[in-house]
Design a protein that fits this description.
single chain, alpha+beta, seven-stranded antiparallel beta sheet
């Protein structure tokens, strides 16, 4: 175990006092002397942070003071890193406007601006009209984030949302485009988005309950108070997420309900807003499906019928119940269909095969298909779609770890692609100076774990290079091998930047996800450790040069590998880390606990699930051993990973560990899960974590 404590000043760390407390479940008692760090009024704190218990606040302030002292010698480095990363951003950047009828809509930034502006132009070009100025709206707020911005089909109004606490309770407003003025309509405690009805005189939205769960769908009529809104649907099961959306043709309102393994859709004709929502296919555990418009039919992406990597069905829009489903694109093991989008003449699907994404375009009239192909060894592909249904043009984005993001319009009929925009790096970027690779790391059970790499051509591959190894590995989320200007600040200082595509994601198909969840969760951790060992074996780095990084469920990964293989890492960065897994999954009152049971297991109902989670839950598995330097980062108003999880974890680490390496805890008292809301404020946070990485490997 490398001892990096000499790189930090010797200052006594805050250690909260212990209070006798134990969690009891299945006749098992687990001591938790730091449980008092959870505020009894946590729901209130989400929306009113000033209501936090003063004793808890004093401890969190002490943590911030401690980490600031330990990192004080990196202040200049942080400033340099920040300026480097800021210099790679085109400050007055603008998206390519997307066409919709007479207009095209886009976002832009002004030089020095933290928040986006939303604008529109005439379809064929004109001076932009600013619809929402994010910087102006954010004035006076320590935190401000805009949710969705949705224009009405008659282009007269905008429905937009904002969160000014970081708690993800969004307020919705309606803005008249002609006068650039918000109407009196004010809708609070929403999920941040809504869907206009066919008349554009009202909209549907999701309301969050006090536990931050999307439990109700309401319809709001313009010019009325929120108290007069009509309840359209109420979900009784707290284990399901819920959202409301529509179709580009504007003919249907779709209520989507689901957890991590089961889904259900309910439909309302957009011109009959108070009609009872009709179920397409009743929820069935383990069966997922998504609806996509197709005019007089729906396209249905589903895993029904044993289609683990999904297949595509069709059904008449007039009666899309399951008995009317007909297969259009069959299941092909190893080809994971990620998403679909329908047009009058086309169906486009984004799929992953052999670990790489690709676009497949299908002509509806003939059934003929062609692939939009790319050549790099590892890359990222995004399907932007279109506002319009009757079009031959689709938009997509492409990048790799060396290639800046490119935006294309693709004509599906002529098969011609038009490059609309290439990401600018004002400070300069020469892709020929860098190497991107994908290697395969042998796992503990013989599986091959993909690892994407980025490094400079002149980086020595003799084990002397430092490495930042990033991982996530949950919910089926795939971390793309995309262009990231921020990590160049490490790569240009000799780092190998690596992404471990571990089980729990869908990088190698849906089975890759299933092999990293519930009773197989520990595969995720073993895969990450195997990736670290393989990077060492191949000369990319050494154990005392690897810094591990992950956030949220990836922060849980960091806690687990810290317990399992602390000797494999020089340092660990755990951002908003989900480390108190067992306690959280035993608390059905927390915002995400019931919806998360399909991912982790339900330790309340199942003793087997209890034992599975207890075997790896990072907070519960901290033990008397040496740990590398650890940095935990969190936000006070985070409803996803509550602040007390990392606070308790840090306290227990300091109590039990046997070395002198420091454990730092930085908590943003004005933000939630996503960290700082402004684009430059976020860079300051990244500069801090990168300074920590450089410090622990001796490159600061």
């Amino acid at each position: 175990m490398p001892n990096n404590s000499a790189r930090f000043p010797r200052i006594e760390a805050p250690l909260p006092h212990r209070r006798d407390y134990a969690h009891v479940a299945h006749d098992i008692s687990r001591p938790d002397e730091y449980a008092w760090l959870r505020a009894d009024n946590w729901q209130e704190v989400f929306t009113a942070p000033e209501k936090l218990d003063p004793e808890i606040r004093r401890h969190l302030d002490a943590e911030n003071a401690y980490q600031k002292l330990l990192m004080s010698d990196t202040a200049e480095l942080q400033s340099v890193l920040y300026l480097e990363m800021k210099g790679r951003i085109k400050e007055d950047d603008s998206s390519v406007p997307m066409k919709d009828g007479l207009y095209a809509y886009g976002t832009s930034y002004v030089t020095g601006g933290q928040h986006p502006r939303y604008f529109r132009v005439a379809r064929d070009g004109s001076d932009p009209t600013v619809l929402i100025d994010g910087d102006a709206e954010a004035e006076g707020h320590a935190y401000f984030r805009i949710g969705s911005v949705d224009h009405s089909s008659d282009h007269q109004r905008l429905l937009w949302g904002y969160d000014d606490k970081g708690s993800e309770f969004y307020t919705l407003k309606v803005r008249g485009i002609a006068g650039a003025r918000d109407l009196d309509d004010l809708i609070e405690n929403t999920g941040g988005s809504g869907e206009w009805d066919a008349s554009n005189t009202g909209f549907f939205y999701t309301r969050l309950d006090e536990n931050h769960r999307p439990s109700q769908i309401f319809h709001h009529r313009l010019g009325t108070a929120q108290s007069e809104d009509r309840l359209i649907y109420e979900e009784q099961d707290p284990g399901f997420f819920m959202d409301v959306g529509g179709t580009r043709l504007g003919d249907w309102i779709m209520i989507s309900i689901g957890d991590h393994e089961t889904s259900e859709y309910r439909l309302i004709p957009a011109n009959v807003p108070f009609a009872a929502p009709k179920v397409v296919k009743p929820r069935e555990v383990g069966i997922q499906y998504d609806l996509e418009e197709g005019g007089d039919i729906f396209f249905i992406l589903t895993n029904s019928g044993g289609a683990k990597d999904f297949r595509i069905m069709t059904a008449p829009a007039s009666d899309p119940r399951e008995e009317n489903w007909t297969e259009l694109v069959g299941h092909e093991p190893g080809r994971l269909i990620l998403s679909i989008i329908g047009f009058r003449d086309w169906l486009v699907r984004l799929e992953r095969k052999d670990g790489l994404p690709r676009l497949v375009v299908r002509e509806r009239s003939t059934g003929s298909e062609h692939i939009v192909a790319f050549d790099e060894e590892a890359y990222s592909l995004g399907l932007s779609g279109s506002y319009e249904y009757d079009t031959d043009v689709i938009r997509f984005s492409y990048s790799s770890m060396t290639t800046p993001a490119q935006v294309f319009d693709y004509d599906m009929r002529t098969r011609e692609r038009e490059l609309l925009k290439t990401q600018e790096v004002p400070s300069g970027h020469d892709a020929s100076n860098y190497v991107t690779r994908r290697i395969m790391a042998p796992a503990h059970d013989g599986e091959q774990v993909p690892v994407s790499l980025l490094y400079r051509k002149d980086t020595p591959l003799d084990g002397s290079a430092p490495c930042l190894l990033y991982g996530y590995g949950s919910y089926g989320i795939t971390i793309p091998a995309s262009f990231n200007t921020n990590c160049l600040s490490l790569v240009d200082r000799g780092f190998v930047y690596a992404i471990a595509h571990i089980r729990g994601g869908k990088d190698k198909g849906y089975a890759w996800y299933e092999e990293g969840k519930r009773e197989k969760k520990e595969n995720t951790f073993h895969d990450f450790i195997s990736a670290a060992h393989h990077l060492v074996a191949k000369g990319f780095t050494s154990p005392d040069r690897i810094v591990a990084q992950g956030g949220s469920a990836g922060g849980m990964l960091m806690g687990a590998v810290a317990n399992m293989a602390p000797e494999a890492f020089a340092g660990i960065i755990a951002e908003v880390p989900f480390v108190d897994v067992l306690t959280t999954m035993l608390d059905a009152t927390l915002p995400l606990t019931p919806p998360e049971w399909p991912e982790w297991g339900n330790p309340i109902a199942s003793f087997d699930d209890y034992q599975t989670i207890a075997a790896y839950s990072p907070y519960d598995k901290v033990k008397a051993q040496a740990y590398p330097p650890i940095l935990a980062v969190a936000g006070l108003t985070d409803p996803r990973v509550t602040y007390w999880e990392p606070a308790k974890w840090v306290a227990r680490l300091r109590e039990l560990k046997t070395d002198d390496n420091p454990v730092l805890f930085k908590i943003n008292m004005d933000a939630g899960h996503a960290g700082a809301s402004g684009r430059f404020s976020r860079l300051e946070e990244i500069a801090f974590t990168y300074a920590f990485a450089l410090k622990v490997v001796g490159n600061a």
